[in-house]
Amino acid sequence: MIVEGRVQIPFRYAAGAAASRFGAALRDERRILGARCTGCDRVLCPPGPFCGSCGGAAGAAVEVGPGATLLAWTELPDRGAFALVRLDGADGALAHRLVDVPEPRVGMRLRARFAPERGGDIRDIEGFGAEGIER
Ligand SMILES: [Zn+2]
Q1: What residues have their beta carbon closer than 5 A to ion ligand 1?
Q2: In Å, what is the CA distance from 127 to each residue of 86, 88, 95, 102?
Q3: Residue 117 in domain
Q4: pTM for the whole thing?
Q5: From ligand 1's centre to the CA of 57, what distance in Å?
Q6: What is the predicted pLDDT for the residue at 131?
Q7: Domain for residue 3, yes or no?
Q8: 46 with 85: CB under 8 angstroms?
Q9: According to the model, what pLDDT value does residue 98 have?
Q10: How many angstroms is it from 93 CA to the middle of ligand 1?
Q11: CA 72 to ligand 1 centroid distance, Å
Q12: How far apart are CA 121 and CA 51, in angstroms?
């Protein structure tokens, strides 16, 4: 017998210094702040407390984007296109939505589009649109 259900677990946690700077800069200034790893010098974005590559601590803030390069994308039924993008100045990839990109191509230039109402998290970026096509 299989019993299906859904568990909803509200939670809160302290985001840490780098993620807090990231959220505040998105919300208040429409800027994207990564953090330089103190161990391997990679620029982490979005920044967590530690580097996923070497385990070093997230250090100094580094402004990245809003320009980005499309690394990969997929179309999800009823949800639109999702992509991995590399923000200018960042290492690694950020997963986010594509908006108004009728013909995505790996390597094409994109630009972050900020939400008109922002609350201090990754959703403050609505998605990434084709560079040169502004709304
Ligand atoms: Zn590192």
Answers
A1: 37, 39-40, 42, 51, 53-54, 56
A2: 13, 15, 10, 14
A3: yes
A4: 0.87
A5: 7
A6: 82
A7: no
A8: no
A9: 97
A10: 14
A11: 23
A12: 19
Q: Which two tokens stand for residue 96?
A: 């986010």
> Considering the domain boundaries, does residue 61 fall inside one?
yes
User: Per the domain annotation, does 51 fall within a domain?
Assistant: yes
In angstroms, what is the span from residue 125 Cα to ligand 1's centroid?
Answer: 25
Domain membership of residue 56 as a residue range: 17-130
pLDDT at 134 > cutoff 90: no
Q: How far is the CA of 39 from the centre of ligand 1 (A)?
A: 5
What gap in Å lies between CA 81 and CA 106, rounded to an integer? Answer: 13
Give the contacts of 48 (CB within 8 A, at least 6 positions apart): 16, 18, 19, 58
CB burial of residue 64 (10 Å; 0-12, 13-18, 19+): buried
pLDDT in tens, 5-58: 999 999 998 989 999 999 999 999 999 999 999 999 999 999 999 999 999 999
The tally of domains found in the chain comes to: 1
